[in-house]
Design a protein that fits this description.
Number of helices of chain A: 13
Structural class of chain A: alpha/beta
Distance between the termini of chain A: 82 Å
Number of helices of chain B: 16
Order of helices and strands of chain A: HEEEHEHEHEHEHEHEHEHEHHHEEH
Number of strands of chain B: 6
Oligomer: heterodimer
Strand order of the largest sheet of chain B: 1-6
Largest interface: A-B, 63 and 55 residues
Helix content of chain B: 55-70%
Largest sheet of chain A: 7 strands, mixed
Number of strands of chain A: 13
Strand content of chain A: 15-25%
Structural class of chain B: mainly alpha
Chain lengths: 428, 381
């Protein structure tokens, strides 16, 4: 009896000691926790510029959540290198706001969980993100980016990303591209009322948004759309070609990846379905021109894009291509290089403007960005960022594959706004 | 004799308290990056315990765990959010767990009929079905872009950045810090409830079922009922893990709940050691935290370059994948019974060294009795 009583008290005492010890440890230890100091709340730098996360006395840090090891590794590498080249050029010129620009690159390999953790890792140390690759990644980060007021240029062009103050889709959205594509087909390829066009599209945001545009434009032009939904893992489109052939399509739109475009065009050509094919911008890569499908692509394919071909004679583009080839002689120059460099330049313009306004906090950068109504980098058409709900650009180029050109494409039509785009945007 | 038992109990309790106190420390020191890894690990541990119950103890192979996680995560986001019924978040969390259980219940007639690899294939269908529904049922799931997750609030206290503002011991408590304690509480609940289940009659019945269905039936175990019950309970743990994951992510997207996630969960319980709660937890932390940490710190290794630089061929993500793969191979080679078995053997060896009784039986490694009862047998489908 007595012994059991003693042990119970012992037990209490041991538990109490442990608890008290732990509490003492906690109290003593939090004294030296760096988190208790309140962290870097920003303030005013010595030169009178308001600073926030990512901006020090002589550095500005930008972040990039990219994919260097997953399905978009080639694109990721091009953008990272192009933006690094931009940062080097800016720093050689004395930087922005008397600060050196530094880009913190995080590779998520197209994995949502890795990307979200990487974001938590870099978010306290960067002021904006000129590159985020991967629609699921962007989707998972939407709320965090809005809350942190982190100006972000995603490498995705779905209209569902519009309407968010901190997130900026650069150039046109997929639906606007497809309206231009349908207009291009009716104007130059002789499609008329009652004809059917096929549209092969990825499931998900990209395809759905593109289909929205093509359906609207086809309805206006009196055409019918035969849709074929595919997955990103489908790389043999024989079944889709057969189905479209049965529908008697006069032209085909495709909003998928380069592998799918090559398969569609190659199979269609070999089966005698020789109709014009128009692809969304992400559906083409210069590597396709080294595949057996190259002759068919050159004969049948056009690409609609907000950016000009890398081989275009715009002086800004030519200058960029020359310095890129000098800096990275082994890397191909593709559309990723152009879009990455363009995004970095726009980010630089925003930072400069924010600096002129006297502040480099995230709020200042977003505000500066939204005040740009005619941002022209000389790498394509000027963009308007002042309306959150509207695509930044409405003008599109039509490109044509050409194995001999830099980047595998040449401009077929200069930038113009397709008739009907304005109606579409106001009806939405 | 009883005094020794009580002494052991006291020591055990003291150890547990110390462990709890240590687990309470990270929010005071580590930043959001580490806390998120911790949260993901805790959520994974809860889910893995559920799968350990089903696959490890009851011997039912399931590749559909990602589906039940998704039901929990999306169930919570829909029930507590807008558009949706907009219920109080705590109630929504509870209902989401029950919903996942109900989903498991609906599927359990299948689970009661097919077994082994066939059940694995049948559950595989759930993942694809679920993914398709998540993408297409826009009004409920938000389609491809998913939907944002309303923060959990309990009696006026919100697990988010503010409302109320909170500073403990000089450390500002944001969403991650608060969620850490919620995660700990949920994990503790999972730990004790599942151990109770495994060590009680249901656990023994399930283990008997796994080893021999006929023998179990002869001993009076209701085969069909226990098989489906295991499925329901496992789905509920998955649902709970889904709710915690959703809260940690703050936005749920369909692409996360893919087949790869199901395979990850299987990897957790195999690496941890089939059929034990501690093993499943260790496996969950291993599979969740290791790749994230390796990706973060691999550029400190020689020959590994920072992402994006042109020289060097191996980036941190690639290096992390090699290392992670090597770690899995090593664990499976040197600890075929998982991390749990490894820890047990290490403890046995330590104990034998500490008791210097040169009795002849010390040369024969005899595992302790209770551990032998819970020892996982080879899986025979």
């Amino acid at each position: 009896m007595n012994t059991s009583h003693r042990t119970r008290r012992d037990r209490h005492r041991t538990a109490g000691t442990v608890l008290a010890g732990a509490l003492a440890l906690l109290l003593a230890a939090t004294g030296c926790s760096s988190k208790a100091e309140g962290g870097d709340k920003g303030g005013e730098a010595a030169d009178g510029v308001r600073t926030g996360p990512g901006v020090g006395a002589d550095t500005i840090k930008l972040g990039a959540l990219t994919d260097l090891t997953g399905p978009y590794a080639t694109l990721g590498k091009s953008i990272v290198q192009a933006q690094q080249m931009w940062a080097d050029e800016v720093n050689a010129d004395g930087g922005i706001c008397d600060r050196k620009v530094e880009i913190v690159v995080k590779d998520h390999g197209y994995d949502v969980q890795k990307a979200v953790t990487a974001y938590a890792d870099i978010a306290p140390d960067v002021v904006a993100l000129p590159q985020v690759i991967g629609s699921p990644v962007v989707a998972a980060l939407l709320d965090d980016l809005e809350r942190d007021k982190m100006l972000t240029f995603p490498q995705a062009w779905a209209a569902s990303l519009l309407g968010k103050d901190a997130i900026q889709v650069l150039g046109t959205t997929y639906d606007v591209d497809m309206i231009a594509a349908v207009e291009f087909l009716t104007r130059t390829k002789g499609l008329k009322k009652g004809d059917t066009i096929g549209h092969v599209y990825f499931e998900g945001d990209y395809g759905a948004n593109a289909l929205e545009g093509s359906t609207w434009a086809a309805g206006k032009a009196g055409l019918k759309v035969a849709g074929q939904k595919i997955k990103a893992t489908d790389t043999d489109l024989s079944a889709q070609v057969s189905a479209l052939r049965k529908e008697g399509v006069k032209a085909i739109l495709i909003s998928a990846g380069p592998a799918q475009t090559a398969s569609l065009v190659g199979v269609a050509a070999s089966r005698g379905l020789k109709v014009p094919v128009v692809s969304s911008a992400p559906g083409f890569a210069p590597q396709l021109m080294k595949t057996p499908a190259a002759p068919a692509l050159a004969a049948m394919l056009n690409v609609v894009s907000a950016a000009p071909a890398v081989s275009s004679d715009l002086p800004g583009v030519q200058r960029m291509v020359a310095s890129y080839q000098k800096k990275y002689p082994d890397s191909p120059v593709d559309s990723g290089v152009l879009s990455g460099y363009n995004a970095a330049q726009l980010m630089g313009a925003d930072l400069k403007k924010a600096c002129e306004g006297g502040g480099l906090t995230r709020e200042d950068v977003v505000k500066a960005h939204r005040s740009q109504a005619n941002a022209d980098t000389g790498l394509g058409t000027p963009q308007n960022f002042s309306d959150v709900d509207r695509p930044a650009g409405v003008k599109t180029y039509v490109l044509k594959p050409d194995a001999k050109a830099v980047g595998g494409v040449v401009n077929a039509e200069e930038a113009h706004e397709a008739p009907g785009v304005e109606d579409y945007l106001s009806a939405r | 004799m009883s005094e020794r038992l009580l002494g052991a109990l006291t020591r055990r309790r003291a150890r547990l308290l110390l462990l709890a106190a240590v687990l309470c420390l990270p929010p005071f020191y580590l930043d959001a990056f580490w806390l998120r890894i911790g949260l993901f690990s805790m959520a994974a541990a809860i889910g893995a315990v559920g799968l350990a119950l089903l696959s490890g103890t009851a011997g039912q192979l399931s590749l559909g765990h990602a589906f039940f996680l998704a039901v929990g995560a999306y169930g919570y986001a829909w029930l507590a959010g807008e558009p949706g019924p907009g219920l109080p978040p705590a109630l929504a969390a509870l209902l989401a767990v029950l919903l996942a259980g109900a989903a498991g219940g609906v599927f359990s007639p299948v689970a009661a009929r097919v077994k082994g690899i066939y059940l694995g294939i049948a559950t595989l269908a759930l993942v694809f079905l679920g993914h398709h529904v998540l993408l297409t049922a826009d009004s409920v799931t938000g389609g491809f872009n998913g939907r944002s997750v309303p923060p959990l609030s309990l009696g006026g206290f919100t697990f988010a950045e503010s409302d109320p503002e909170l500073t403990v011991l000089g450390v500002p408590f944001g969403a991650e810090e608060r969620l850490w304690f919620l995660g700990l509480a949920l994990f503790a609940f999972t730990w004790f409830s599942s151990r109770g289940l495994l060590r009680g009659r249901p656990g023994r019945a399930l283990a008997a079922l796994r080893d021999s269905e006929t023998a179990a039936a002869v001993m009076g175990v209701d085969v069909a009922r226990h098989r489906s019950a295991a499925f329901v309970v496992s789905s509920m743990y998955a649902g709970l893990a889904g709710v915690l994951l959703a809260l940690a992510f703050r936005r749920v997207v369909p692409d996360y709940f893919s087949l790869a996630l199901s395979v990850d969960y299987l990897a957790m319980i195999v690496i941890g050691g089939l059929g034990s709660v501690a093993g499943a937890t260790a496996g969950a932390v291993f599979v969740t935290a290791l790749p994230l940490l390796m990706t973060r710190y691999a550029d400190q290794l020689p020959l590994v370059t920072a992402p994006g630089s042109t020289e060097g061929t191996v980036g941190p993500t690639e290096a992390a994948r090699y290392l992670y793969g090597a770690a899995i191979v090593l664990v499976l080679l040197y600890a075929p019974d998982g991390l749990h078995g490894l820890a047990r053997r290490a403890r046995d060896r330590l104990r034998r060294r500490r008791t210097p009784t040169p009795a002849p039986d010390t040369t024969v490694p005899t595992p302790p009795q209770p551990a032998a009862a819970a020892r996982p047998k080879e899986h025979t489908p």
